[in-house]
Amino acid sequence: MTAVAAESGAPAAPSLPSSPGPLVRARWAVSDTLTITRRNLLVWLRVPAFLVFTVVQPVMFVLLFRYVFGGAIPVPGEYVDFLIPGILVQTAAFATFGTAIALAQELKKGVIDRLRSMPMARSAVLAGRLVADTGRMLVTILIVTGVGYAVGFRFDNGVLPAILMIVLATVFGLAICCISAYTGLAIGDEESVQAFGLIWIFPITFLSSAFVPIPTMPGWLQAFANNQPVTYVIDTMRALARGGPVEASLWKSIAWLAGIFVVFLPLAVRAYRRAS
Fold first, then answer.
1. How many Cβ atoms from other residues are within 10 Å of residue 206's Cβ?
2. Model's pTM, two decimal places?
3. In this structure, what is the dihedral angle of CA atoms 211, 213, 219, 220, given to the nearest 10 degrees?
4. 145 to each of 77, 107, 252, how far by Cα in Å?
5. In angstroms, what CA-CA distances link 50 with 57, 102, 145, 202?
6. C-alpha–C-alpha distance, residues 34 and 154, integer Å
7. Per-residue pLDDT of the chain in tens (276 residues, 90 and over written 9)
8. CB contact at 8 A, 214 and 234
9. Residue 130 in contact with residue 177, Cβ under 8 Å?
10. Which residues, including other chains, have CB under 8 Å from residue 74's CB and lie 6 or more apart?
11. Neighbours of 35 (CB within 10 A)
């Protein structure tokens, strides 16, 4: 047929383009994710009040507990060294409210549908949101750490453990972001999402070793406080900052965080695929 077409002068049929390989598709997905990340960060930069309030709340907690409650709460060593790791974990957890609310708003306004109709990787919308929120969370954690230094907190265990402490707080926040992303997409209403977030984030942060030693709690609360991820992460961060045994609480923290990623990341992806 090709020879006949060539002899008759008829144009040959165009060959179909080959589908891109997995490396090309992965590169496209990363590029699309970075584009959505930049879009989300620009939205926050155009609303300075949001960034200010995101930082002001944890700073207020630092000052409140450091100067109002710190003298009344007996702990081993200085209370400020006990406090700041708990504040950083609370900051990371509370920052995930923005993930749930933003996804619920974009879902309700049809922004997600418009983005999904564009020629881009379907994973970019959710991945870009998580990357942007993690970056914003890291900036907030660093600012709160600086405020902690201003009021007396110190890393007594060296530079590398200090970096690992910040990394652990950020990874914890990313894990909670996966839960918030799932709730935001599954509920789809920003007011309901915010109310639901208060119901579960407040108890796991305050019913932990964040602000007071667990032995001072009633016995029926100690069982919960001693065996939940926030306590394990905070205890690991305190050991990294102040020195002391790290292994036991670190492995328990890793196990909890891995479990959260394994459970809630697929749930968030499933909720995103079903969102309309």
1. 14
2. 0.86
3. 30
4. 19, 34, 24
5. 11, 12, 20, 20
6. 35
7. 444 444 445 555 455 455 666 777 778 878 888 988 898 888 777 777 777 777 888 899 899 988 888 778 888 888 999 999 999 999 999 988 888 888 888 888 888 878 777 887 778 888 999 999 999 899 999 999 999 999 999 998 889 999 999 999 999 999 999 999 999 999 888 888 888 888 888 889 999 999 999 998 998 899 999 999 999 999 999 999 988 888 889 999 999 999 999 999 999 989 888 875
8. no
9. yes
10. 213
11. 14
CA distance 77 to 57: 26
**Exposure string for 93-115, b = 16+ CB within 10 A, e = fewer:** bbbbbbbbbbbbbbbeeeebeeb
Tokens 């060294």, located at residue: 81
Distance CA 106, CA 103 (A): 5
Residue 87 identity = I
DSSP 99-122: HHHHHHHHHHHTHHHHHHTSSS-T
- Amino acid identity of residue 133, one-letter, is D
DSSP 258-271: HHHHHHHHHHHHHH
Let me know if 226 is exposed, middle or buried by CB neighbors in 10 A (0-12, 13-18, 19+).
middle
Tokens representing 101 are 């609310």
Query: What whole-number distance in Å separates Cα of residue 198 and Cα of residue 6?
Result: 73
